[in-house]
RNA sequence: UCCUCGUUAGCUCAGUCGGUAGAGCGGGUGGCUGUUAACCACUAGGUCGGCGGUUCAAGUCCGUCACGAGGAGCCA
């Protein structure tokens, strides 16, 4: 009989075609159980979330070697796909040959038992070989694809905004410096300041904290655009939903207002959830069973109901009416605290909610001033379990108003000359938002810590690997 | 950065009133003819996070530092 190369995903998806066939597969041992007459290998070949069971018998010339293999070892197997006698799997491979490709040393740290996520973070180079991380990173890849697919199908142009930015005027917090200066011999100007004219770019440069200001320029040319790339924040944030390096998706749409913006965000969220449920059913079932029991029910609800939309003022009223005791009091004009946001989305409304029209004093300079002169057309999308997942706004397209806001906030208008130019040459109402990619993954998988949805997370005091 | 909690075998943890260290899993050896975190027996494995203090005596009490986690702020 002819031996065909196969992968585990195909055998699961097209079982009929493979039943009775001789196949060659290769992969890594997840667990092994052996007696002195036969044994079982659970093999993962990387093509699929699930493992395939390989049965091997003492008739193999290297039976002893195979039976002694440790978890993690790499093997090649040839054998026949047959129906399984065991109850837990519909089929298995009866081995004719098992070649040991790479043994795993006996101190391979992953055991066939539950490990804590904290421990697995210390072995981030090995954790992709666990069930949970296999599922997380398969879903992460799918969500990235779904996002590109969503925007591409709607005619959006994908723009690569710079990673290294030339000014610190992006206004979203502490930035990482980019420099080739010798830290031990920093050139100074005559008044004692660092002489950046001697630096690589001849000026002070940083890693980007947002592609928004840059992508707005492309919005005016291509109408509907988005960025999808890494973002860096040098904030000393120590929470389960902050990382120093993360990925962000930032669409920007022309001739659009804050409501168009919310429509787009809602449609996008629904699209990617639907796509993942469709294309990663095994992974999603795993998350629902082992990570977050209510996950599938919650995502179903999102697919089948409208997101709530309330203004900041209404949110404040709702919170005041609730009579709930908060650690921080609710007050119009103050930003909503995390406890307020969570109560809104998790207890009061129990679904994703857009809060929009925030007081201007707590929001960024570029957000469009509403007619009441007190609020700006900003919106946050809050979701149960994660909190703020999207932040966006309609942008101030009126030159005079924008200039006024820049000055009110004590910023230097010269830093924004090209951003202001947009309001002089064919200005138009436009809007956009930033979706935290990892926060979306957390929401979709039920994973509770951002460090566990990034391959090699960077957080304060941690850049190992 | 602030508050709280934690750090004991490779991993997950227990350790009472202060009296010199335990279990399960994993590893090793042997056994077992359909396993499913296989099972059974035996076995090796410890600077109790670091430093300092109190005490006859510290894993245990106190101080301090490091690291980790949760919460807050910042935000995506």
Write a brief caption for the model.
The chain has 14 helices and 17 strands. With 465 residues, the protein is of the alpha+beta class. It has helices at 8-13, 15-18, 63-67, 117-122, 131-153, 212-222, 258-279, 281-291, 295-303, 312-321, 338-348, 399-408, 417-421, 437-445; strands at 3-5, 22-34, 38-44, 52-57, 74-83, 91-102, 157-158, 164-165, 177-178, 205-207, 224-232, 245-254, 308-311, 353-359, 375-383, 387-394, 430-436.
Which secondary structure elements does this structure contain, and how are they paired or packed?
Blueprint: E1 3-5, H1 8-13, H2 15-18, E2 22-34, E3 38-44, E4 52-57, H3 63-67, E5 74-83, E6 91-102, H4 117-122, H5 131-153, E7 157-158, E8 164-165, E9 177-178, E10 205-207, H6 212-222, E11 224-232, E12 245-254, H7 258-279, H8 281-291, H9 295-303, E13 308-311, H10 312-321, H11 338-348, E14 353-359, E15 375-383, E16 387-394, H12 399-408, H13 417-421, E17 430-436, H14 437-445
Parallel strand pairs: 1-2, 4-6, 7-11, 13-14
Antiparallel strand pairs: 2-3, 2-5, 3-4, 5-6, 8-10, 9-10, 11-12, 12-17, 14-15, 15-16, 16-17
Helix pairs in contact: 5-7, 5-8, 5-14
This protein binds one RNA strand of 76 nucleotides through strand 2, strand 3, strand 4, helix 4 and strand 12.
Would you give an account of this structure?
The structure is a single chain. Strands 7-11-12-17-16-15-14-13 form an 8-stranded mixed sheet, sandwiched between helices. The model has no long low-confidence stretch (mean pLDDT 93). Strand 5 and strand 6 form a beta hairpin. Helix 5 crosses helix 7, helix 5 (131-153) packs across helix 8 and helix 5 crosses helix 14 (437-445). With 465 residues, the protein is of the alpha+beta class. The protein has 14 helices and 17 strands.
């Amino acid at each position: 009989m002819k031996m065909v190369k196969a992968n585990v995903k195909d055998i699961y998806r097209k079982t009929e075609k493979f039943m009775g066939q001789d196949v060659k597969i290769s992969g890594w041992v997840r667990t092994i159980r052996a007696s002195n007459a036969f044994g079982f290998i659970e093999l993962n070949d990387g093509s699929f979330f699930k493992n395939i069971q390989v049965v091997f018998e003492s008739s193999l010339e290297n039976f002893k070697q195979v039976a002694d293999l440790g978890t993690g070892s790499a093997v090649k197997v040839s054998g026949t796909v047959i129906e399984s006698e065991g109850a837990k799997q519909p089929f298995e491979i009866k081995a004719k040959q098992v070649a040991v490709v790479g043994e795993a040393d006996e101190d391979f740290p992953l055991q066939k038992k539950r490990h804590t996520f904290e421990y697995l973070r210390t072995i981030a180079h090995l954790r992709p070989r666990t069930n949970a991380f296999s599922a997380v990173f398969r879903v992460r890849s799918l969500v990235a694809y779904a996002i590109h697919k969503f925007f591409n199908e709607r005619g959006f142009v994908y723009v690569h905004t710079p990673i290294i930015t030339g000014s610190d005027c992006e206004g979203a917090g502490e930035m990482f410096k980019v420099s080739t200066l010798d830290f031990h011999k920093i050139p100074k100007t005559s008044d004692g300041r660092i002489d950046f004219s001697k630096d690589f770019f001849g000026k002070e440069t940083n890693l980007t904290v947002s592609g928004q200001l840059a992508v707005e320029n492309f919005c005016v040319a291509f109408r509907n655009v988005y960025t999808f790339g890494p973002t860096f924040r040098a904030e000393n944030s120590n929470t389960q939903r902050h990382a120093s390096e993360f990925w962000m998706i930032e669409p920007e749409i022309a001739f659009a207002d804050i409501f168009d913006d919310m429509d787009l965000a809602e449609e996008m969220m629904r699209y990617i959830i639907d796509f993942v449920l469709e294309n990663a059913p095994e992974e999603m079932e795993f998350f629902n069973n082992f990570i977050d029991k209510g996950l599938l029910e919650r995502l179903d609800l999102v697919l089948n109901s409208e997101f709530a939309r309330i203004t900041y003022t209404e949110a404040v009223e709702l919170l005041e009416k609730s009579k709930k005791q908060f650690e921080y009091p609710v007050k119009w004009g103050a930003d909503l605290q995390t406890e307020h946001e969570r109560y809104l989305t998790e207890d009061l409304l129990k679904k994703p909610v857009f809060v929009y029209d925030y007081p201007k004093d707590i929001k960024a300079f570029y957000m469009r001033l509403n007619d009441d002169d007190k609020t700006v057309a900003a919106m946050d999308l809050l979701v149960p379990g994660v909190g703020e997942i999207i932040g966006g706004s309609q942008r101030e397209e009126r030159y005079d108003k924008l200039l006024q806001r820049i000055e009110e906030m004590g910023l230097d208008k010269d830093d924004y000359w090209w951003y202001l130019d947009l309001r002089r040459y064919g200005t138009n109402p436009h809007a956009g938002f930033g979706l935290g990619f990892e926060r979306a993954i957390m929401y979709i998988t039920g994973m509770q810590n951002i460090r566990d949805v990034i391959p090699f997370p960077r957080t304060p005091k941690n850049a190992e690997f």
